[in-house]
Amino acid sequence: MRRTASKWGLVTALFALAAHAAPPAPKPAPKLITIGPAITQTVFALGAGDRVVGVDDSSAALPEASKVRTVGYQRALSAEGVLSLGAGLLLGSAEAGPPPVLEQLKQAGMAVETFANEPTVEGARARIQGIAERLGTPEQGKALVAKLDQDLAKAAGRAARVNGAKPPRILAIYARGAGTMMVAGSGTVADTLIRLTGAVNAAGSLPGYKPLGAEAVVAAAPEFVLLPASSVSAVGGAEGLAKQPGLSQVKGWKLVTVEDVDFMGLGPNLGQAVARVQDAVAPASAKGGGK
Predict the structure, then answer these.
(1) Which run of H or of E encompasses 254?
(2) Which of 42, 95, 206, 213 could bridge 185 with an S-S bond, Cβ 3.0-4.6 Å?
(3) Taking 70 as the threshold, does the pLDDT of residue 68 lie above it?
(4) Backbone region of residue 65 per phi and psi (left: phi > 0; alpha: psi in -120 to 50; beta: other values)
(5) What pairing do the DSSP bridges indicate for beta strands 224-228 and 254-258?
(6) Is the preceding omega at residue 98 within 30 degrees of 0, hence cis?
(7) Which residues are within 8 A (CB) of 226 and not within 5 positions of it... i.e. 6 or more apart?
(8) 54: Cβ–Cβ under 8 A, 6 or more apart, which residues?
(9) Could you say which DSSP state residue 211 is in?
(10) Model confidence at 38, in pLDDT bands (50, 70, 90)?
(11) Cβ contacts of residue 271 below 8 Å, gap of 6+?
(12) CB 145, CB 277: distance < 8 Å
């Protein structure tokens, strides 16, 4: 009986130790592939940059992602290339693809989630919040949206203070070389960026992106030409642009650049991009008015 009692005492003690044992360690957060510069910028801004092991080519232009491996053009991803990085989750813009590759990734066990690239402030807010929820950082998402709204409010106040002044006319051009130029009309990211500055999109009567036509450019009469920063050298700078049909006939326009991410998608730094354009196009007497 003593041995039996001793045995049961030992069993009871073991159960007690098990009950007070430390809970199992949580699974590490999955490594990430981010596709689309606005998506990548948002993930880093939410504090999850250390989990990113791969980005698309356009995201590699972001300083925070410059040392991350690339997986190719966002519309022409390779399943093998993406899977080779060992990530568990791909977050991408709606342009990520092609669809069969995304399906291959899912079948291989990778979680894939895409977000609409709607070129509106409302769309930017929703995208930030959606990514934050997916990463398990909803509070950081709320703070990021609040900062975005604060920056945009400053820009709106600055635009409103230019009373009675004729708004500048800005022509936004998407260029990958002198032979491939498109003007950004309504419903584009560049159109939203221009309107938020208080300026007029000189090609606003056109829907989407249209080829750069001489007659249309002359009729648009731009005072400023907005270009993604990476395209400047490809077109030969302001001198090269001045040789293009239409722009060669419009006198006095000035070149303004924004980072590629701000031309391609509305990310958490949208308000700061708006302020930079305002600085570039504002009269000397109005510069710094939003600070």
Answers:
(1) strand 254-258
(2) 206
(3) yes
(4) alpha
(5) parallel
(6) yes
(7) 170, 171, 172, 173, 190, 193, 194, 256, 257, 258, 263, 277
(8) 32, 33, 34, 68, 69, 70, 71, 82, 85, 87
(9) E
(10) very high
(11) 147, 148, 149, 150, 151, 152, 154, 155
(12) no
Whether the Cβ atoms of residue 226 and residue 258 lie closer than 8 Å to each other: yes
What are residue 255's phi and psi, to 5 degrees? Answer: -90, 130
Whole-angstrom Cα distance, residue 138 to residue 141?
5
The rounded distance, in Å, linking the Cα atoms of 234 and 168 is: 26
Read off the tokens for 114.
């895409």
What's the token pair of residue 136? 């398990």
pLDDT in tens, 254-285: 999 999 999 999 999 999 999 999 999 986 44
Instruction: Count the residues in the chain.
Output: 291
The residues near 239 (Cβ < 8 Å, ≥ 6 apart) are: none
Q: What is the pTM of this model?
A: 0.85
Residue-wise pLDDT for 137-151, tens only, equals 999 999 999 999 999
In the DSSP assignment, the letter for residue 64 is G
Rounded CA-CA distance 61/59 in Å is: 5
Reading the block at residue 19, the tokens are 């009950």
How confident is the prediction for the chain on average, in pLDDT?
Answer: 89
- Give the angle subtended at the CA of 207 by the CAs of 218 and 233, to the nearest 5°: 60
**Which pair of structure tokens corresponds to residue 94?**
């709606």
Distance CA 148, CA 125 (A): 8
| Alpha carbon distances (Å) from 162 to 37, 95, 142, 199, 252 | 32, 37, 31, 11, 22
Which range is least confidently modeled, 13-27, 167-181, 243-257? Answer: 13-27
